[in-house]
Amino acid sequence: MREAYRVELDELAAELAGMCSMVATAMELATRSLLDADLGLAEQVIGDDAKVDDARAACEEHAYALLALQAPVATDLRTVLAAIHAAESLERMGDLALHVAKAARRRHPQPVLPDQVASDFREMGRVAVSLAREAEQVILSQDVEQAHSLEQADDEMDDLHRHLFTVIMDKDWPHGVASAVDVTLLGRFYERFADHAVSVAKRVVFVVTGRMPGAGHDEAV
């Protein structure tokens, strides 16, 4: 019975890892749609968002079934609870990629981003996708050191986000208020995407160690 339960827990982890892959791809395509004013890619991300929502529902249903199947304790209980929280974070990552794609669609055929900040968003997109891919590996490996390494990558995203503010707040910003608002919101989407990826990794640390990194600090919302 216990062996069968462990197999179910491994399957639940695989479902979460699959969600990581989905949201990484969504953000990668959304970023390309943003940089290239590609309506087709934006529509693809928007259309596929329902699959992320369905994946979260499936993960949560699986997790609740495992709670009912056999009252888990210790690591097993942490695994199931962490999976429920991680699925929520991953769905929100999908929503953030969706917001990026919708911005690209809303402004089409005009580009959303001034050339002045395009390189910043290219790099933010790279970091965001990398974080989601790393979270996928952490879920499968339960490697605590790798989980902690995501926080360093998140620091890189925070640095990019801060730099973006210095650009749009410059008194010589030539692109107007509407463009500044777009850039501000988009930058926030990437920054929150990264925060959620780190939150997923922290859940893995909680599973392995029984302690939540940064306890007492705000989690990504």
Automatic annotation (TrEMBL):
Residues 18-103, 122-204 form the PhoU domain. Keywords: Cytoplasm, Phosphate transport, Transport. The keyword RNA-binding does not apply. It comes from the Bacteria. It is found in: Cytoplasm. Its main location: cytoplasm. SUPFAM superfamilies: PhoU-like (SSF109755). The keyword Cytoplasm applies. Pfam families: PhoU. Homodimer. Plays a role in the regulation of phosphate uptake. Belongs to the PhoU family. This is Phosphate-specific transport system accessory protein PhoU.
